[in-house]
Amino acid sequence: MWLPANKISQKEINKVWSEEWKKQMPESPKRIFAQRLFLESYPVFKKYISQTQDLKILEVGGGSGRYGLKIAEDFPGSQVIISDILTESLELIKKMAAVLGLANIETRKEDVFNLSFPDESFDLVVCDAVIQYLPNYRWGIDEMIRVLKPNGRIIVTVSNYWNFHSLYKLFKIIFGSKYEYQYEKSFKKNELREALKNMRIIAEDGYYPAYGLFRLKKINFLFKYLGKIFNRITKFLDFFSGRFFSKNFGYKIMAVGEKIFQNSNIIVKNSGVIKLQFFNDYPDGNLVIGEAQRSVPFKIKRIYYINNLENPAAARGKHAHKKLEQYIFCVSGSFSLELDDGNMKQKIVLDNPYRGIRLGPKLWHTMSNFSEDCVILVVADDYYDENDYIRNYEDFLNFIKNDQIQ
Ligand code: T46
């Protein structure tokens, strides 16, 4: 990897940004809307927002809030919540919303890993250039997907690896100075796609390839003119190529995903999802908390874990329980969990340490496809009892049939 990202803690990352928002204490929002980068980027966002219905919209990590504010202005029938973890950002947004006289805006202090909204609250989640600052960005995305309604849409943008901006960061490293925003991952398209793997990707886009060159003018003023030339060329080429340059070499790349109802929700009987509280203390680890009779909805009598899953062909489970209630977690790595209630079947990839899947009674379950670093944790509401297992699939089908007759 020729573009290392500094390992600094999430607290330090937040500090960089609170300083940034303090500096920006508001000018006129109209001026922010008139900035070149915004003029290039906002129309690309707007393309993917439904014009035909009023939406409940969440902007995550709003920062200056300019996207949420402009969306609220352009879609006055929609309700927009702009969230950020930093008070400085929310202060800035509130002031700008007041200047614009927007009544359909609310600001909320929220941690992207622990959004306080119930499941399936929003039609649209917008997240501009935020996950690039989150070393554990996959789990942030999962949280955004959680609060999306079925078929709801997410628009995510990130720094593009294949843009001159990467060169700017590299020069900074070579010349021994820090990149002003410190930790920032530059994404390749497939990495962004992978982050949205549980969604139906409906569009990939990007904008403003020349902006990365304009940033290089801090190194030499000639880049300003090179940027201008490059801007003309890419605009010309975009015009004839369906925006090929912007989509592939834009300063930011964008993915638009839709929540797939069947895949992200449990369709089999006797199952469900719980979410544990998650503290991201990167690079000093994560802390995930489950509490009996709170986040885990029963008294825990037993825990067990499974590790050293080195055999790629391993398959575990292949049984159901008669009465036992359990939740299964993937605390490290990933694996596939196949659930079968005798009627419906479902396969779920577990790769998120704070999400638990209910293994209720009468649910045939099989675990396979373990990553080498996979560690599975299970909490159960009773002690081990071999008599509670149904280890033969025919017996399982008979058991649920008889159960239905009784
Ligand atoms: C389940 C899935 C998710 C015990 O003696 N005590 C215990 O608490 C457990 C869990 C197992 N055992 C014995 C029973 C077997 O002789 O350990 C041996 C291996 O158990 P098993 O083949 O059932 O392991 P998995 O991974 O297929 O299933 C386990 C749990 O047993 C099961 O309840 O739901 O994980």
Overview of this protein structure:
There is one protein chain. The chain is an alpha+beta fold. It folds into two domains: 5-259, Rossmann fold; 273-405, Jelly Rolls. The protein is 32% helix and 27% strand. It contains 13 helices and 19 strands. It has helices at residues 10-23, 29-33, 36-47, 66-74, 87-100, 137-146, 164-174, 189-195, 211-215, 222-241, 244-249, 261-264, 393-405, and strands spanning 56-59, 79-84, 105-109, 122-128, 148-159, 199-207, 252-259, 273-275, 277-280, 286-289, 302-306, 315-321, 326-332, 335-340, 345-350, 355-359, 364-368, 375-380, 389-390. The strands form four sheets. It has a seven-stranded mixed sheet with strand order 3-2-1-4-5-7-6, sandwiched between helices. Strand 1 (56-59), helix 4 and strand 2 form a beta-alpha-beta unit. Helix 1 (10-23) packs parallel to helix 5 (87-100) and helix 3 crosses helix 4 (66-74). The model has no long low-confidence stretch (mean pLDDT 91). Bound molecules: dTDP-4-keto-6-deoxyglucose. DTDP-4-keto-6-deoxyglucose binds at residues 302, 304, 306, 316-317, 326, 328, 359, 378, 384.
